[in-house]
Amino acid sequence: MNQSVDIKELNERIQQESSFVDMITMEMNKVIVGQKHLVDSLLIGLLSDGHILLEGVPGLAKTLAINTLSHIVAAKFARIQFTPDLLPADLLGTMIYSQKNEEFMVKKGPIFTNFVLADEINRAPAKVQSALLEAMQERQITIGDHTYKLEEPFLVMATQNPIEQEGTYPLPEAQVDRFMLKVVLDYPKKDEERMIIQQNLLKKFPEASPILKPEDIIRARDIVKDVYIDEKIQKYIVDIVYSTREPAEHGLPKYAEMITYGASPRASISLAQAAKSYAFIKRRGYVIPEDIRAVSHDVLRHRIGLSYEAEANNLTSEEIISEILNTVEVP
Amino acid sequence: MNVTRTMKHITFVLALLLIVASGVQAQEIKARATLDRDTILLGDQIHLNLELEQNIGPKIQFPQIPDSIGKSIEVLQRTPIDTIKMEGRRIMLRQDFLITAFDSGPHPIPPVWFKLKYDQLTDSVHTNSLSLFVQVPKVDLKKGPADIKKPFDAPVTLKEIAPWLFGGILILAIIFLLIYAIRRRKKKLPLFQKPPKPKEPPYRVALRKLDEIKEQKLWQHDHVKEYYSRITDTLREYLEGRFDVTAMEKTTDEIMVALKYDTVKLDEKSYKQLKEILELADLVKFAKFIPVEDDNQMTLANAYFFVNQTKIEEKSPEEEEEENDEDNGDEEITIDLSDKKGRRKS
C-alpha cells in the first residue's frame, strides 16, 4: 500500500508530538476521578485555542480540573468569582496613582494569566461579561493608553450554574457564541463517587506533576492546524450546520417551528477546529466523520435558539442535535 | 177501413225501425262525464273525466272546455286527449281536467257536447250533467279566533332538488380535490402520480450498482476517491435495505457496532470483510490515501462477495408470476423465523 506522503509524514509527527496527550490524561486522572469528557473537552479547547463554557451543578470538580491542567502545563491560573458588584476594572485592571512616582501606573487584573476560571459568569452584570468576552476574542486588553497582549496559551473556562436563576444575568446569544464549546457536566458514576469519598476520607490527594510548558501547547497547536480535513468532511460540517438553520429543507420539518435561529458560521469554524483537535487526540492526521460527531454536541448546543413551542414540548437542543446527526448523510 | 188498417201497419213498422235504429246508434257511441267525488271542501281539487266510447269511423270533434265551467268552477290543469283501443273495433277517447271551486254551494256541470261527422252526415252526442257541491269547513265558534294556517308545502320534486344535489356533490368534490392537492404539496409530491413500481430487492440494486462501478473503470481513470465513495455508498444502501440499519447516516464505527451488537448478526467473515472495505474507503476518502491496484480490485471483489454472502433471494413479481404459471402453485414456501425476512425455497 502506498500512502500519500504528507498524510504519512503528518501521522508520524502527530504520533511523536501527541504523546503528551496521554501524559496529560494520566496526570489529570490522578487528581480528578471520572469526568473524562471534561478532560477531553479541556484538551480540545487548549489545542483549538477556543474557550469553554461549563454548565453543571456545584461540586463537580470544575475548578479542580482547570487548576490541575494549569499545574500540568506549568502555566499561570486565576479564578475569578463573578458577582453582581464586580466591575470591568476588577477583571481587566486599572490605572492607579503612585504617590511615590507621582504618576499613574497600570495595575493588571487577574485576567493576565494563561488559564482563567470565570466562576458563575452569569452572576456578573453585562458590562463585566462583555469585558471578559471581548478579551477572549481580541486576546488583548487596553488599559489607559496602552494595549497589552494576553499570554499564550490563553484559555477561559466559564461556569454557569443551571440551578439558580434569580439575580443572574444570562449571557446574550451573541456572547455565548464566542465560546467554542459548551460542556454539560453530569454527576460522577457510583464507583467514581465511592473513590472520591475514599480519597477525601484518607486525606490523600494526589498531585499532578508539571510535564509540559506553554510552548509545547503552542507547538502542538501548529500541528493541529496541519491536520487534514477533506472537502467531504467540510461538506458534512456545512450540512449539519445548515440543518440547524433550515431543518425543513434537510428532512426535519418537525423542527422548523422549534428553532428560532440556527448555528452561525462561527459554529462551522469551531466544529472544524474542534474535530481537528479531536483527531489529534486520537493520534490521527486527518479528520473522519466520527470526529465531527464526537464534538458536535459541545460545539452546537449553545448555538441553537429554541422557540417557546420547543420549550413547551420539553424539547432540548441536545435532542435536536442528535436528530440532525441521525438525519444528515455521512460522507 | 182497410186504408186505415194499412196506415196503422206502416206507422207501426216505421216506429219499430226508428226504435231499432236509435238503439243501434246508442250502442255505438257513449259519452260520459264523471267526477272523483261530488262533494269537496272550499278550494279542494278534484278530477273531471270526459270519456267517449265509439266504433272506429266517424270523426269526433272533442269539445273545447274553457278555463271555467259555469261561474264558479275553475279548470286548473287538463291532460291531452288520450285514445285507448278496446275490444273489436271500439276505441275510447278520454280527457282529464283538474278543477276546483271557491264558492260554496251546489255548482251544476252542464252536459258536454261532442260533434260527430260521418261521410255526409253530422251528429252530436252529449254527456250526462253533473253537480258539484262545495262545502265550507265547519268552524267551531266556541274555540274562538284561530291563527291563519300557513300554506301547505308542495311536495319537493326531483327536478327541484337536482341542481342543489349536483351543486353539493360538485362543491364536495372541489373541497376534496383541494385538500388532496394541499396534502400532496406539503409532502412535495406531484398532484397526480403513477403508482410506484414494486421495490427491487436490495441485493439486486447493489449488484447492479457494483456492475456499473466496474464498467466505468473509475480507479483506472484516476478517480480513486469516487470509486471508493460509490462502493461504500452502494454497500451502505444495501445494509439499509437488507438489515434495516440506517447506514447512510452512520459512521464506519457506528455501522460496525450496529451490525455486531444490534439485532443483526453477521457471520465473522462477512463482518471482517465489510470492516476492511469501509476502513480502507475512509482512508481513501478522508486521508488522501492512494491504495495499490490490487487493493482496488480486491475491494470491489469483496463488495460483491459481501452482498452475495448476505443476500436474501427475493423473486421479482414477474418471475413469481412465471413460476406460478409453470408450477401451478405446487411451490413449497418455508419461512425462516430466525431471520428478519422470509427466505423462499423452491
Short description, anyone?
Chain A: Keywords: ATP-binding, Nucleotide-binding. The complex is a heterodimer of chains A (331) and B (346). Chain A is α/β, with parallel strands linked by helices.
Major β-sheet strand ordering of chain A: 2-5-8-1-9
- Element pattern of chain A in H and E: HHHEHEHEEEHEEEHEHHHEHHEHH
Q: Report the sheet with the most strands of chain A, covering strand number, pairing sense and barrel closure.
A: 5 strands, parallel
Q: Write the H/E string of chain B, N to C.
A: HEEEEEEEEEEEEHHHHHHH
Structural class of chain A: alpha/beta
Q: How would you explain this protein's 3D organization?
A:
The complex is a heterodimer of chains A (331) and B (346). Chain A has 331 residues and is an alpha/beta fold. The radius of gyration of chain A is 21 Å and the shape is globular. In chain A, a hairpin with a 2-residue loop joins strand 6 and strand 7. Chain A contains 14 helices and 11 strands. Chain A folds into 2 domains: 24-216, 3-Layer(aba) Sandwich (Rossmann fold); 227-327, Magnesium chelatase subunit I, C-Terminal domain (Helicase, Ruva Protein, domain 3), CATH 1.10.8. Chain B is of the alpha+beta class and 346 residues long. Among the domains of chain B are: 28-136, Immunoglobulins (Immunoglobulin-like, Sandwich), CATH 2.60.40; 202-313. Chain B contains 8 helices and 12 strands. Chain B has helices at 2-28, 158-186, 202-216, 224-243, 252-261, 268-286, 293-310, 317-327, and strands at 30-35, 39-41, 45-55, 59-61, 68-69, 73-78, 82-85, 90-101, 105-109, 113-117, 122-126, 130-135. In chain B, strands 1, 3, 5, 6, 7 and 8 form a 6-stranded antiparallel sheet that branches. A 3-stranded mixed sheet of chain B has the order 2-12-9, with no helix packed on it. Chain B has a 3-stranded antiparallel sheet with strand order 4-10-11, with no helix packed on it. In chain B, a hairpin with a 3-residue loop joins strand 5 (68-69) and strand 6 (73-78). In chain B, helix 3 (202-216) packs antiparallel against helix 7 (293-310) and helix 4 runs antiparallel to helix 6 (268-286). Residues 20-26 and 329-346 of chain B have low confidence and may be disordered. Classes of the chains: A alpha/beta (331), B alpha+beta (346). The interface between A and B is medium-sized, with 25 and 19 residues.
